[in-house]
């Protein structure tokens, strides 16, 4: 380092949106590298509504790597954080800030420590993909700080090692995570299918049934499913490959009835394999089931789907309306069936359009 003073701090801040899978990832073939047993497809949400903001800082006065999540210090000991840090450090390049008189060489990065401060503006570990926005943001901000010159596809393979779903948050619009074939995971990357402008009539509503942290994390839930469910192999090998092809076609053609049918069926099958796990895992609750009933009934009465529902590993509903009019009618229905301040009221509703990763740095 040209500057030997320990006073300087270099910082980068970035934001990353969450993404919600319409064809779900559930099950790993490699726990350490995080390699999935099937391809998945998701839609990236608008970071104005649900996003992670992460600031990463480096200074010669830091004597260890440290991280704060939602203002509380957490341990970086787990393999996932270490894997992401190692992969980014391995690609770090020279950084020069003439104004501050700072010069960091590629070699310096191996000995410098970072402090990470991350904040989710939505419930953490409640089935709204906080791990996706969180690890995408962590990898993206560290890559900026360390001047890593890799495209978002390569960065997605690093974010994947933090949390599988995180690889898809590196792109906006509809995104596919290709499971890949290689043992080292080099071809297990996110690929953008269409950007956020392609199907911009869609409106996404999040109905927060509960902000509480789930009892079974996605990581342990899917491990138990792979170990004990008789249905998961059929899902991964037979059902999902067909659905991936159909879903890509529906998205390309903006074919809402097919899109809605595939999205709802895939969510329901994911929760069915959770229930087929021993002991069974229940991510949805009675309110979630009532939301499904409400959407199904309305779609049937209209003769063609107006809204698709999908639930990740938690009770909260993600509703994708075919257009703004359907979204408004859906909200009215939700308010009628789940009145505010009643036993089954929903914490909040968020309407979001699809959007792309924004670099706030
Ligand atoms: P979710 O459904 O919210 O993705 P998961 O069980 O998959 O729930 O993951 C939750 C975990 O993800 C948290 O316990 C934490 O370890 C990690 N995580 C969440 N937000 C962040 C963040 N902003 N930065 C880093 N890690 C995060
Ligand atoms: C139901 O990506 O959170 O949201 O890779 O173990 O961190 P880890 O799991 P995670 O699992 C997401 C599961 C899901 C479906 C999906 O996002 O595809
Ligand atoms: Co997650």
TrEMBL record:
Residues 16-190 form the Diphosphomevalonate decarboxylase-like N-terminal domain. It is an enzyme of class 4 (lyase). Its main location: other. It catalyses: (R)-5-diphosphomevalonate + ATP = isopentenyl diphosphate + ADP + phosphate + CO2. Its EC number is 4.1.1.33. Transmembrane segments: none annotated. PANTHER family: DIPHOSPHOMEVALONATE DECARBOXYLASE (PTHR10977:SF7). This is Diphosphomevalonate decarboxylase. GO terms for biological process: isopentenyl diphosphate biosynthetic process, mevalonate pathway; sterol biosynthetic process. Keywords: ATP-binding, Isoprene biosynthesis, Lipid biosynthesis, Lipid metabolism, Lyase, Nucleotide-binding, Peroxisome, Steroid biosynthesis, Steroid metabolism, Sterol biosynthesis, Sterol metabolism. GO terms for cellular component: cytosol; peroxisome. Belongs to the diphosphomevalonate decarboxylase family. It is found in: Peroxisome. One of its GO terms (molecular function) is diphosphomevalonate decarboxylase activity. Residues 204-361 form the Mvd1 C-terminal domain.
């Amino acid at each position: 380092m040209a500057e030997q003073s320990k006073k300087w701090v270099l910082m980068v801040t970035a934001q990353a949106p969450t993404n919600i899978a319409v064809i779900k990832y559930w099950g790993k073939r490699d726990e350490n590298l995080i390699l999935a047993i099937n391809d998945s497809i998701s839609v990236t949400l608008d970071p104005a509504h649900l996003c992670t903001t992460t600031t990463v800082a480096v200074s010669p006065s830091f004597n260890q790597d440290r991280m704060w999540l939602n203002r509380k210090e957490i341990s970086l000991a787990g393999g996932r954080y270490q894997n992401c840090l190692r992969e980014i450090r391995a690609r770090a390049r020279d950084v020069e800030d003439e104004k501050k008189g700072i010069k960091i060489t590629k070699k310096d990065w191996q000995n410098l420590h970072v402090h990470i401060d991350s904040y989710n503006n939505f419930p953490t570990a409640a089935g709204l993909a906080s791990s996706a926005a969180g690890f995408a943001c962590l990898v993206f901000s560290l890559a900026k700080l360390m001047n890593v010159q890799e495209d978002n596809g390569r960065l997605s393979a690093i974010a994947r090692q933090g949390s599988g779903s995180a690889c898809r948050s590196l792109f906006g619009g509809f995104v596919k995570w290709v499971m890949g074939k290689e043992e080292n995971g080099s071809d297990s990357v996110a690929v953008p299918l269409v950007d956020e402008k392609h199907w911009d009539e869609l409106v996404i509503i999040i109905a927060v049934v509960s902000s509480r942290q789930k009892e079974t994390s996605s990581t342990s839930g899917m491990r138990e499913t792979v170990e004990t469910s008789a249905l998961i192999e059929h899902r991964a090998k037979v059902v999902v490959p067909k659905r991936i092809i159909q879903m890509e076609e529906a998205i390309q053609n903006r074919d809402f009835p097919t899109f809605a049918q595939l999205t709802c069926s895939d969510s329901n099958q994911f929760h069915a394999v959770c229930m087929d796990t021993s002991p069974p895992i229940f991510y949805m609750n009675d309110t979630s089931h009532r939301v499904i009933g409400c959407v199904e009934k309305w779609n049937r009465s209209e003769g063609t789907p107006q809204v698709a529902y999908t639930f990740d590993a938690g009770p909260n509903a993600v509703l994708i309306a075919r257009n703004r009019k359907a979204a408004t009618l859906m909200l009215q229905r939700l308010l009628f069936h789940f009145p505010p301040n009643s036993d089954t009221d929903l914490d909040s509703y968020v309407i979001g359009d699809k959007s792309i990763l924004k670099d706030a740095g």
